[in-house]
Amino acid sequence: MGHLFERYVGRQLDLLTDAAVYPEVEYQLAKKQKGKSVDWIVVFPDLVLLVEVKSTRPGEALRLGGKDFTTILDDQFRKAFRQVDNSAVRIRSGAHPEFDHIPGDRQMVGMVVTAEQFHQINAPDIRAGMPATTVPVTVTSIQELEDAVTITGTSLADVLRASASHDGAALRPLFQGHKFLDHNAVLEQAWSAIPFARPRDRDRSAR
Fold this sequence. Notes:
5-stranded mixed β-sheet, 7 helices, 9 strands, two-stranded antiparallel ribbon, alpha/beta, 207 residues
């Protein structure tokens, strides 16, 4: 399921009309070892988005708000946050020719896409207990991303910059005041396979 979900996220990112989307980059390390970047790299004219995909879902302890809430989140997201940070460092260093197609002089932000929503994960008090990163990172559910890629009248890069200015704030509150396409092309393709189903308008700020 992890590989399928990763590919699905890539299909959503491909809906962006003002950005180039690149898959995971494998690069050479010392002693014939190789490393891998984040799953997707999205290059806007003035911003680079580093996307790590996690098919994880909040377990019972998280849903019930257990005492070890922050510890569980740290365990689930530490690797993803470090992957974003490591990719940013590799791109900016210019030491790996495998990244030559990715501009290293633009603002960089990170995004961890999850299969389900993790409520409050981007709240400042929660993020304070999670791994620190050199680039702002927001955790986004696939539902949010499905809406985000249909934004119109502005670039998603503008929304990402607004999130970055708040150290990786959640995207959905930043949707307010923006317009979106009536439907998501990938989702509509799926709906079209069901004869009695029809796409419906959605209020992105309320979901």
